[in-house]
Amino acid sequence: MMQTRIDLQNWKCEGPTAIITDRTVAKLYGNALARRLNCPLFSVAGGEECKTRASKEMLENALFTAGFGSDATIIALGGGVVSDIAGFVAATFCRGVKLILIPTTLLAMCDAAIGGKNGVNIGERKNAIGTYYKPAQLLIDPHVLSTLPDDEYLSGTAEILKHGLIWDQNLWEWMLSSFDAWQSRDLGFLEKCIDWNIQIKSDVISKNKRDLLNFGHTVGHGLEMLQGMKHGMAIAKGMWTETLWSKGYDANVKNGLGRFGFDLEIDADFEKLWSVMQWDKKRTKEKLYAVSIADKTLKEMTFDELFANLSTTP
Ligand SMILES: NC(=O)c1ccc[n+]([C@@H]2O[C@H](COP(=O)([O-])OP(=O)(O)OC[C@H]3O[C@@H](n4cnc5c(N)ncnc54)[C@H](O)[C@@H]3O)[C@@H](O)[C@H]2O)c1
Fold it and tell me: 202, 267, 256, 201: which is closest to 234 by C-alpha?
């Protein structure tokens, strides 16, 4: 996926355009962009709770009411929640209209906006419906990360560390050795980090290894839906738990995730967590699968194997 670096303060585009964003990003960047482009802006409330069919329907109705048709361009301005909903809307509105992604969280720049996946949740079923739909453009302005809250910045870091663990040891080591630049959100660090992660995710997909991207997500999605925690925080717990499960135990994983401040403990009713995990899309023929980091493949996961190891969780 080719990305273009932009300065959001000055960027413009032509044609019938609508911005889809959330309320926080609207106030910070969206309203100003809508004024400059002289186009309507439609906001969802924000957060995982609004990644629903109801939000998609609300946006579709708003687009039709505003007179948009098949020549529309939809700009998705926001984090992964916005790119997932707006991408799904763009994929099906008038059977597909032009989509421009402008991710504004670290997680969306390094992960959610890459690879063309979109979707919404249905109850506890994470990303239950959606499509694969490529954006016409991926535009990135790393300056917007200066307003991102610390916990959201940390959440995005989980997917970056995942890319290091599943694909490129050099990225993992570089992240650990760049801790100060990470903490201060140094612009040079961020630019290199975003470029590197876009490259890795694109490589993984082009080599048909998409499954690996699910490392930490079988458990992580369960926690995210059961306990409402942020995506990256849940994935960090998932990565550590699945590392223990795969018997690829490596103190580096624990120490590395811990260095960035992730809490790796799972405080949940295991039976309830297991039942929410059953909605995982990798489930087939009554079996649940997760990525074993020890041998980098999908393997069947059983309740006993997973939770037997949890007693040794730090
Ligand atoms: N489609 C994919 O391939 C893919 C991959 C990974 C994750 N995801 C999805 O992404 C979602 C998580 O995305 P996220 O972590 O970006 O969360 P998010 O979209 O909820 O954004 C997090 C919060 O940050 C705020 N925000 C966004 N940009 C900001 C900025 N520049 N300054 C200040 N505040 C800002 C938002 O308003 C929101 O409150 C999950 O639903 C997950 O399933 C999708």
Answer: 267
